[in-house]
Write a structure and sequence with these properties.
With 119 residues, this protein is mainly alpha-helical. It is built from four helices and no strands.
Length: 119
């Protein structure tokens, strides 16, 4: 069954949850990081869902995976700077890995001209 909108895609739903988690966790960061790390993390995470939405008609897996990797690097940096706990890092890492797996499956399905999974 073909989805009617990008919001029905499981990958977009998971990525959206990830963005919300990033926003929630970065609220706790020091003020001096607001325009540096916080801004970059939020933009990288939000870019995942934005690219899925934009690419709904035309997909670029390279761009999506690039934003996923940027976001993941910021998570590692946040842990190393002591802004998030190891548990937060692990949870966000699990979410990011699942999104990456779903994006790969979505891209492969599109390349094979198969309907990607929806809810």
């Amino acid at each position: 069954m073909k989805s009617q909108s990008f919001e029905q895609l499981i990958v977009w739903q998971k990525a959206h949850s990830y963005v919300l988690a990033i926003y929630k966790i970065t609220k706790q960061y020091p003020k001096e990081e607001l325009f540096c790390l916080v801004n970059q993390m939020r933009r990288a995470a939000a870019s995942i869902t934005a690219n899925i939405a934009e690419g709904y008609a035309k997909i670029s897996s390279k761009d999506k995976l690039r934003f996923y990797n940027i976001s993941r690097n910021f998570i590692i940096l946040s842990k190393d700077l002591g802004y998030i706990t190891l548990q937060d890092k692990e949870q966000l890492g699990i979410q990011a890995a699942e999104i990456s797996r779903l994006l790969n499956a979505y891209c492969i399905a599109l390349l094979k001209n198969v309907s990607p999974p929806t809810t």
